[in-house]
Amino acid sequence: MSTPLAPLITAAGLASIWRASNDGVSAQITHIALGDGAYAPAQDQTKLRSEKARYPVAGGERLGNTQIHLTAIADDAKAFWVREIGFILADGTLLAVWSDPKAALAYKAADVQLLLAYDLALNALPPDSVTIQSSGAGLNLSLASELAELAAAQIGEANRGLGRDERIRAQEGRLQALEPQVATLQNRSQALEQEHAADKRSGLELATANAAAIVSMQHLFVKQRLGA
């Protein structure tokens, strides 16, 4: 969503607008400047106190005679808290400035796209005296909404992935806890198999001995009969 701002119109910006009006044209806002200075803006300002970056206006529209909507994308490697904002005209003049001595407006992370979307109330200016010169990127609120939905979906999927990872780790922990029990059961099974094999060998040996004794007795009985 866009942030409503009522920036202070600078004396230099007002003079630039009057010059443009005398030529029969409107002053054009071309860039949005961001800085990390925190203060109460002054009308005699000609620049931000601590400007960190400046971005071209990507798109915008007129919401009324003295209200306009601006969008831009901050996508460089700079990182800072956004505590002051300047709106720059085509000739480089600081038209208006916003800042707050206590509150930061946003955080600009390094190499992460930050959508800048502002609704400006320029009630101190003549109607229709300011227009927007965009880079033609066509960025608007509908795109901002899509980007927000995409970001939310990505965050949700990441959270679900973290949940799956936690469940997998929990299952792995339970399996590791069962490994000693499984090993004990395997050892017992092998011992029982060995006992069974030993019992089987003993039974075979006993049966063989019995058979041999029977054969020997029969042989002795036959010899006695023949001798008689």
Automatic annotation (TrEMBL):
<dbReference type="Pfam" id="PF12571">
    <property type="entry name" value="Phage_tail_fib"/>
</dbReference>
<feature type="domain" description="Phage tail fibre protein N-terminal">
    <location>
        <begin position="1"/>
        <end position="99"/>
    </location>
</feature>
<protein>
    <submittedName>
        <fullName>Phage tail protein</fullName>
    </submittedName>
</protein>
<dbReference type="InterPro" id="IPR022225">
    <property type="entry name" value="Phage_tail_fibre_N"/>
</dbReference>
